Amino acid sequence: MGPIVGRRLPFVDKNSPGRAPPPAAPPPVPSAWPFAATGGPLVRGPLRPCANCASLAPVNTRILAIAAALCAARLQAQSVTSLPEVSPAASVSQVVGISSVKVVYHRPSVNKRRIWGDLVPYGFTNQGFGTSKAAPWRAGANENTLVTFQDDVSVAGKALKAGTYGLSMALAPDGGVTVIFSTDTTAWGSFFYDPSADALRATTRMEDAPYTEQLRYQFDNVTANSADLALYWESKRIPVPLRFDTDRIVEDRLKEELHGSRGFVYQAWVEGSQYLLDHDRDLPLALTWADTSVSAPFIGERNFATLSNKSLILEKLGRKAEADQVMDGAIKIGSPTDIHAYARHLLQIGDRDRAVATFKLNARLHPGAWPVDYGLARAYSAMGDYKGATEALLRAQQALPEGDVANAAAIKINLEKLRKGEDIN
Length: 425
Known about the structure:
It is a single chain. The protein is α+β, with helices and mostly antiparallel strands. Helix content is 36%, strand content 22%. A six-stranded antiparallel sheet has the order 3-4-5-8-9-10, with no helix packed on it. Strands 7-6-12-11 form a four-stranded antiparallel sheet, with no helix packed on it. Helix 4 runs antiparallel to helix 5 (283-295), helix 8 (336-348) packs antiparallel against helix 9 (352-365) and helix 11 (386-399) runs antiparallel to helix 12 (405-419). The protein starts with 34 loop residues before the first helix and ends in a 6-residue tail after the last helix.
């Protein structure tokens, strides 16, 4: 074996292979070698051992200074960070609803070793280094595995504040897993694990999974409100269920944004109130925002979008007479496409009679305009008059805007349905 100087000797954690903590900086060149700095005259020195040949040889002090500098440089090379890692760094992120989750970690390999209960021991262990005598697994390799939550989250049913946390795990032989989120985000592994820094402990279970050579994290079963943050390694999967109160988060974010620069356009107030309406949240606030879009100084505008939105909110609040009055005003200034879209909305919510009346009103206000006859076809079809619906749909086919491939295909499909005596709504 060659000399130790200049060799990379990583401190390897039995529990999670990876690179060593950065070594201490080498000592400064001793003052016994002043010529390294002064460039003084060459003089003969005493016999000294040569580090490379392990023999005694007469050398001068300048040569000694150069050799010392080279040794120091070789020691310093152990702390460079631009070398490939055995367990490479990785990150993965996911947006759940509007909340970002990011995991930063390192990826050890199985490398033909026994993992669970061996390389990764069960429970809390004394790793023989650092201050912790009962340390969990770092859930990765090298530095702390870090998880950042943009918003408050529920982890396996337990509340956790937004922020960045060190992630570690303690596994049981029966497959149970204690998942630990720590406020210590700067540690190297879990050698200095301190349970007093735990922000949350939650429990989950290990599951069988397809073989994975390199440890990885990924997000499974993503919805608008939830996801599983899952660790995959060897033939196991460890899912950590996450859940966000997305509606509350969106509502809070909307309040912030509408009080900022985005609140200087009416469209933002329409979008915000529509979200509250669609998700049945704080309808009085939705109406306030709708009123702002209609009549606020400098930004309010009376158009089909603002008035129809206000009408829908009034109706949801049970104020039908007011809703109808506002909607009548919207229809009078709406485009053929606006009115058509509103009538289709009425069909979707099951208000067939009002939908038919609105389609017919659109035909009286905008005869021959696209998509008026398409709307009439839907009205006749809703009433069971398939002959009238077919005639109206053929007129709509003639009025179809050039290049509208999607509606051209839809009309062909609906004509075939009408010929078979099927409703096209």
